[in-house]
Every structure is written in structure tokens, then in C-alpha cells.
Design a protein that fits this description.
Layout lengths: L8 H15 L6 H8 L3 H13 L3 E4 L5 E4 L8 H9 L24 H15 L8
Helix pairs in contact: 1-3, 1-4, 2-3, 4-5
């Protein structure tokens, strides 16, 4: 079955992990996050290290190690997390990236542009703090 929109596993791991870490009263390690998200430990570790590099998380090694947030939850929105993993969301005029359309009017109307803009604005409006209640 075809999907109009599909988020990458890495993007999903990043957002879900950040919410889990924000909700946790203690540091969370890769094993616990992988169990909660149903993802491989290797993939979770790779995604979380990217979030550490981009200053969202602090990590500590060892038996009592794990990850914790580097900034307050009110200062982190889901767009920043998503773009940390996937790169900046580009809002293109043409879904096929054509400079010149072979038709007088785009066959897709403006739906791809609107959906991308709506998705970006939705993520921007969502703060980590919104998911702590």
C-alpha cells in the first residue's frame, strides 16, 4: 500500500527518544530507549549521538550512564529535532523539482507545497514541554 507521507525511522527515533528522555526523571540509556521505540540499539545510538553533537543531549558512559537533555523542554521544538537528523526541510514549488513545468498548470495544484509547509509549521509549534503532561 502506498503512503502519501512517510517519516524515516531515524526521524521517528529522534523525536520519540527526545520525548522519552524529557519525561524521564533519570538518565535513559540506549537499551531502554530501543525497547520503548522498538528500534535496534545500534540505530538508536547513532541517532542519539547526532543529537549530542547538535547540543540537544548530554551523554555519559558507564553503568550509570545515559542521556539527558541539555536545554529546557520549552526551548526545544520538534522541527529542530527532525532537522537535526534529516536536514532542513525545503519547501519546493514543484514536487518534481522542475524549473519549467511541461504543463500550463501544475497537475498537483499546490498540495505538495502546502503539505510540506503545514508539516514544518506543525513541528515548529510543538515543544518538548507539550508532551510532559
Amino acid at each position: 500500500m502506498s503512503k502519501v507521507f512517510s517519516m524515516s525511522e531515524a526521524g521517528s527515533i529522534a523525536i520519540h527518544s527526545m520525548v522519552l528522555i524529557a519525561k524521564s526523571e533519570s538518565k535513559l540509556n540506549v537499551v531502554k530507549i530501543a525497547e520503548h521505540t522498538g528500534s535496534s540499539r545500534h540505530h538508536v545510538a547513532k541517532v542519539l549521538q547526532r543529537l549530542v553533537k547538535d547540543d540537544f543531549l548530554v551523554s555519559n558512559r558507564g553503568p550509570h550512564g545515559g542521556f539527558k537533555l541539555k536545554k529546557p523542554t520549552e526551548e526545544i521544538n520538534l522541527l529542530e529535532i527532525y532537522e537535526s537528523i534529516e536536514g532542513r526541510i525545503e519547501i519546493a514549488e514543484c514536487p518534481m523539482d522542475n524549473v519549467i513545468c511541461p504543463f500550463e498548470k501544475c497537475l498537483m495544484g499546490n498540495i505538495i507545497h502546502k503539505m510540506t509547509e503545514d508539516f514544518k509549521n506543525y513541528l515548529l509549534a510543538q515543544k518538548l514541554s507539550d508532551y510532559l503532561k
